[in-house]
Design goal:
Blueprint lengths: L9 E6 L7 H14 L4 E6 L1 H8 L6 H14 L8 E4 L5 H11 L3 H5 L2 H9 L8 H4 L1 H10 L5 E4 L4 H18 L8 E4 L27 H9 L20 H9 L4 H9 L5 H15 L1 H11 L2 H29 L9
Parallel strand pairs: 1-2, 2-3, 4-5
This protein binds adenosine-5'-triphosphate and magnesium ion.
Length: 338
């Protein structure tokens, strides 16, 4: 007889459908998620309620973006056979638990959330002074605890959110007198922070991104527009690869070439244009597999629908069970014993 197998720990993570995924999302999240599938039971969510909180004035983009994100997820290696891939609003239990947990969340906990304060200042193009946005950490808490997830992959900057989830869980469990909700732990992952074509952090909001689904010509155009080493003005000047965004890309996407590229730059054996032309071809080759998978999925929308329905079914079965337990403990459950 073999060793008894331990049940696998559960992970939940999600992405807001606010556009297609870019290389920053790939290196900062999806690569890690793809790996986690080997060891954990993973739930990967397309968080459309979260998108609505900031995009409610122009919600028409959310559903098409959710479709794009679904295709990006699968074409970048998330496996619907092994992981539960679902759209948040297909499991409305998230919203119901959100309302229940909001009863257990003091407003002061939300107001002191550093990301909230930061976003209010930075996201000036959107009016996020709404009730839902203040409470988004409560929805996040619901997203996690409804699956009794043990681990949540986060970067350091997201630790305060997870702490809030843990506080809500502790408060809820203490008040209902049962350890019904699971306190999730952070699964800290050090992932590179990819810079965009303009050297700021790659982000949809800055419009400086290279999308996973970009076609070869678009990739060439974007890479050629990348800002390189600001100190290298003439072709003959020696470069500073350690300060050059383009050189950093080789480290991530083609480490085997990094030494040669660094040498050519440092000793002015090639110009930034040559370097960028080369990088564009590397990225095009690198993204060939997701591009092919995407084309295949786009040709079979019925397969996409199937994946989404299957994911919603699996997610909902778990979510419903947790919600029933919670309702039973909060006076919202059954009234009669039948
Ligand atoms: P938005 O502009 O709407 O904030 P975004 O492009 O910044 O969108 P997010 O939805 O904020 O993307 O991020 C989704 C995931 O991708 C998060 O886990 C985040 O840490 C990661 N991520 C986003 N941008 C980068 C980047 N430039 N480098 C590394 N990881 C990133
Ligand atoms: Mg962002």
């Amino acid at each position: 007889m073999g060793e008894p197998t331990q049940p696998r720990q559960r992970i939940l993570s999600g992405m807001r459908p606010t556009g297609r995924l870019h290389l920053g999302n790939l290196v900062g999240a999806l690569w890690n998620w793809r790996m986690l599938q080997d060891t954990y039971d993973c739930f990967f969510m397309i968080a459309d309620y979260h998108a609505l909180m900031s995009d409610y004035e122009k919600p028409a983009g959310i559903a098409p973006s959710a479709r794009e994100v679904l295709i990006d997820f699968i074409s970048c290696g998330l496996d619907p056979e092994r992981s539960v891939i679902f759209r948040q609003s297909d499991v409305p239990e998230h919203a119901e638990l959100h309302l229940i947990l909001s009863c257990y969340t003091p407003i002061s906990w939300l107001e002191r959330n550093p990301t909230y304060k930061e976003q209010l200042q930075q996201l000036t193009a959107k009016d996020i002074r709404n009730y839902a946005f203040l409470g988004y950490p409560v929805l996040q808490a619901s997203d996690i605890v409804i699956y009794k997830a043990n681990l949540v992959p986060v970067g350091e900057d997201q630790l305060p959110h997870l702490e809030l989830t843990r506080e809500v869980v502790r408060r809820f469990n203490a008040l209902v007198g049962r350890e019904v909700l699971v306190e999730p732990q952070a699964k800290l992952t050090a992932s590179p922070r990819l810079l965009g074509t303009d050297r700021r952090k790659m982000s949809k909001s800055y419009g400086n991104q290279i999308d996973v689904a970009d076609d070869p010509d678009t990739i060439r155009k974007k890479v050629m527009s990348m800002i390189t080493d600001p100190l290298r003005i003439r072709r003959g000047d020696p470069g500073h690869p350690e300060d050059c965004n383009v050189c950093q890309y080789f480290k991530i996407f083609c480490p085997a070439d990094q030494e040669t590229v660094t040498d050519k730059c440092r000793h002015a054996k090639w110009g930034c244009t040559d370097c960028k032309k080369y990088l564009a071809e590397i990225l095009i080759a690198f993204l060939a597999e997701p591009r092919d998978k995407r084309a295949e999925l786009e040709a079979h929308p019925e397969r996409l629908k199937e994946i989404l329905a299957d994911g919603a079914g699996k997610a909902q079965a778990v979510a419903r069970a947790t919600l029933e337990e919670v309702k039973g403990l909060t006076g919202l459950g059954q009234m009669f014993n039948d």
